[in-house]
What does this fold into?
Amino acid sequence: MTDLLHEACSRLGVVPARALVEGGQKQVNVVTHPDGTESVLKLIDLGMATDPAALERARREVDLLKSIDHPNVVAVTSDLQLLGEPPVAVFWLEQLLDGTDLRYGGSGWPSEQLLTLGRDVAAGLGALHKKKVIHRDLSPGNVQRLGSGRFVVMDPGFAKHALRSGLTVGGQPGTRGFMTPEHLQAYSGAPTAASDVFGCCALVYLAATGYSPIPYKGDDYEYLTRLRSAQHILLRDARQDLPDGLVDVVERGLHPQPARRYRNGDALRRAFDEA
Amino acid sequence: MGVFLGDTARNTLIKWTTSAVQGGYASGAYLSPFTSPRLANGFKRSAHDTSEQIRAAGGEFWFDPMTYALSMPRAGDFRHYDTWSLWGGVRGDVTSRTAMRDHIERVYAIQRELTSPLLAPSLLVSYPDTPASQRALEISQEAVDVEPTAWLTVAGDQQFWGAGAELDAHVGALDQLEPAGWLLVVTRSDNSMPPGATAEEVYGLMRTTFAFSQDRPVRVAFGDVAALPAVAAGAEAIGTGWDIRQRVCAYQDFEEREGDQSGGGWYQRPTLGGLMGGLANREYSVLSSENAALAARLTPGTIGPKPEQAFQHHASILTDIVDELNGLVGRDRIAALRRRYADARPEWQEVKRITGAPLGPDRWIKPFSDGMELFAASEGWS
It folds into this structure.
């Protein structure tokens, strides 16, 4: 991967500054431009079996993301580029964000902060959904809380197209503990915008309680069995101090049937606005 | 809205639909290319005339392409179908987006010509997480891309509707398409009446109906008494008719056959509102002669001796129930149908004793009531 990183930096005319995520299939580095500004370089090792059609979809999706200018979506600032022939890796540049992601956000948040989290993430998702981009892998590591208090959605859409099956325990790639029932489907029932709605509400639930609505307990089969029905401890039982409006929005977003949730990010944001 | 009529092999669609619309026991009719020719053929009027006359009577006229029937096992009755020019290439070929789009545009063109609301073609699905279900999703996507104001059909067999989480995920993907409305169909491997429904299938149909009907109208084609739980879950209307082919969507009715069947006596079997089910003519005669008061209470209303009168009574019974449910919301709809089932169930004991009817509440009520209770429990409405 180190050689790949240096080749990618060379192609972009940037210099590696420091690593944010090392090892494994995905490498995330802060890089410095000649003018001294910094960006994030994301590099994904494709392994031996690269599906050309999947690569083409990934390239189209990066093109779409480049066209999204929204305060709650990380900015993609370069085209998706390939390394090797046949390709062995892909890379692209994103804006560097301050703050920390939700893995370090703690729990027991007050309702005002939960509403801000829900509104911001839903608004970011809404911008993606308008472009027909589904995030598919909303997890605590993919939402950043900036120093200003604003929340930004990261890594939209890439998992399905670029990553190998390392994160896959059902029919679709995703992060254990933050998948949706649709992640178990391989064909027509695969994740949609309503799945991202579930993911957003799962993050609000996590921030409220300290655990995801359908937590992963170390056993894939046991997890998938619970995921299939999406049964969980109701938020009103886990946090009795929260206002009904907020609880109702989160519970609707976590409904096992995707057609019973808010249809997309914009609809969810409006619901949080009114909660 | 309440009851609409499916197409019939007989030549009575215009006259009986017109009477039903004017009599308030149906809202209109759906014409099928499997059942009626595009142009007049000496036995049936043209589709254009059918549309004009039903609409002139104040009824709705729909052209239902029923593309899903092409994938039924042994589908082979194309005598009328091939007069409609619904395919530019091989009949039923949806292997490419181009072929899908060509078929969709041909269907829409006919619907516009016949002043029918747009109802997109759809494919039959047997299990909702397969390449076939993916293809069904794609043709629906293509159909709303061509015309966002179209209605979409969801057609599946009993396994499809009973598939649980897989069904819900497939329905969730369809829901993203936001059509003008939904037409749901349960296809069956036989045309027995009452249909051999399962509680899981009824539950799946209800979950889907309830989800879709939150912001879109939902109707159940064919359906008849088996679709009443779907009405309790939010459907606005169900399909019926005077032939078994209008009440059950069964594979055998799309098989190759010799000539149109103009006869058949089933359509005169009375449907008794007080039983939430029906009797054979002989059984009803015995009941009426042995205990006229009970027959009158359970019927209720008058069942005339002619086929159209028998149909009128049947459609009126359905309309009364659907209208009652449509006047309620949420759990009250479920409670109202639950009461009807609960009231009807004990009546069967005496009716079976008098008539010797082989069918009873186990077939007419239990699977539908059980499916409804699964749904009620899932909503916390038990």
